[in-house]
């Protein structure tokens, strides 16, 4: 195992729980409650969340949330969604301190749930029965046998519908182009503020991919390739529009904005705009597009892979319900 896995094994031992190395999740029963500990984002392995399934007559109140977070400096928040409560920890780089903080947080959470009369239950039906931990798509649940079977069946039905749904490439391209306008707008706005930032790449990627999926019906490998081409083209157009705004600011009394847009190649040829400055700025924008868009594309692919599966934590039982 690697160092990160060794750290999780040590943390699981300190918590009195087990470690699933395949799914990188700490799990088990502590007292009356079933607990999961995991990194919500794999890029930040030291930012951990604590998850459990509980119910009560009334949901967790804002006052109770403030009471809990105020008592633990390492906790950034606690929230309840349905029959699930999740506690989010701060990122603590030093593993020994992180382990100490996690032990304190888990023990404090268990005491808090008992005092506040929360009862352990199934994440879906809310019944106080024996449950097992599962990764459902990109989230986590504690499920009783009946709910696990029903949920898996529902996911298979949805997955089959997705698989049978036809991809409309033309509509997808239209959607991607519409989505890319958000990226173009972010490039222009950030440039006007004097910045070039990776966030414009993220906005461009998300806008293009979501736009393609919404109008195209589904996002396939073909859609991602088309989306990448659109990102590259629209980033160039966004940069050119930005330069046209600069030119229009100088000679707008004599030419329209569209004239200024068309005049950019002439301006470069006649050296009214320094070619090195233009190329350098364009390359920088493409670099930031790469930095911002690649994680978004990878995340989209990973979400697609995990969007229709149920994985039982602590076993090799994986149900893949959809293959593209």
What does this structure look like?
- With 324 residues, the chain is an alpha+beta fold.
- It has nine helices and eleven strands.
- The two termini are 32 Å apart.
- The C terminus is likely disordered.
Question: What are the salient characteristics of this protein?
Answer:
alpha+beta, 56% helix, elongated, four-stranded antiparallel sheet, 17% strand
Which of globular, elongated, flat, extended, rod-shaped describes the shape? elongated
Please give the count of helices: 9
Q: Helices and strands, in N-to-C order?
A: HEEEEHEEHEEEHHHHHHEE
User: Percent helix among the residues?
Assistant: 55-70%
According to DSSP, the number of beta strands is 11
Strand content: 15-25%
Average pLDDT, all residues: 88
Instruction: Output the structural class.
Output: alpha+beta
Q: What low-confidence regions span 5 or more consecutive residues with pLDDT below 50?
A: 317-324
In whole angstroms, how far apart are the ends? 32 Å
Radius of gyration: 25 Å
Question: Mind summarizing the main beta sheet?
Answer: 7 strands, antiparallel
């Amino acid at each position: 195992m690697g160092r990160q896995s060794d750290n999780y094994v040590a943390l699981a031992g300190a918590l009195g729980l087990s470690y699933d190395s395949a799914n990188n999740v700490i799990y088990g029963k502590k007292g009356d409650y079933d607990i999961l500990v995991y990194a919500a984002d794999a890029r930040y392995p030291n930012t951990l969340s604590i998850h459990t399934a509980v119910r009560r007559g009334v949901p967790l109140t804002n006052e109770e949330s403030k009471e809990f977070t105020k008592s633990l400096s390492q906790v950034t928040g606690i929230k309840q969604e349905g029959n699930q409560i999740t506690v989010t920890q701060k990122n603590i780089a030093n593993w020994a301190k992180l382990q100490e903080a996690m032990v304190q947080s888990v023990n404090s959470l268990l005491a808090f749930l008992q005092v506040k009369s929360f009862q352990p239950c199934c994440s879906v039906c809310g019944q106080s029965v024996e449950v097992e931990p599962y990764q459902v798509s990109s989230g986590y649940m504690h499920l009783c046998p009946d709910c696990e079977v029903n949920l898996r069946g529902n996911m298979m039905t949805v997955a089959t519908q997705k698989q049978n749904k036809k991809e409309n490439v033309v509509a997808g391209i239209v959607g991607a182009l519409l989505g890319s306008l958000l990226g173009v707008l972010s490039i222009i706005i950030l440039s006007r503020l004097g910045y070039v930032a990776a966030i414009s790449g993220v906005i461009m990627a998300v806008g293009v991919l979501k736009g393609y999926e919404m109008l195209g019906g589904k996002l396939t490998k073909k859609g991602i390739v088309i989306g990448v081409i659109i990102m590259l083209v629209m980033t160039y157009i966004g940069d050119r529009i930005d330069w046209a705004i600069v030119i229009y600011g100088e000679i707008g009394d004599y030419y329209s904005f569209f004239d200024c847009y068309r005049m950019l190649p002439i301006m470069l040829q006649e050296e009214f705009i320094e070619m090195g400055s233009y190329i350098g700025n364009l390359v920088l924008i493409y670099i930031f597009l790469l930095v911002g868009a690649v994680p978004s594309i990878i995340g989209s692919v990973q979400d697609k892979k995990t969007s229709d599966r149920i994985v039982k934590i602590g076993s090799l039982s994986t149900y893949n319900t959809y293959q593209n």
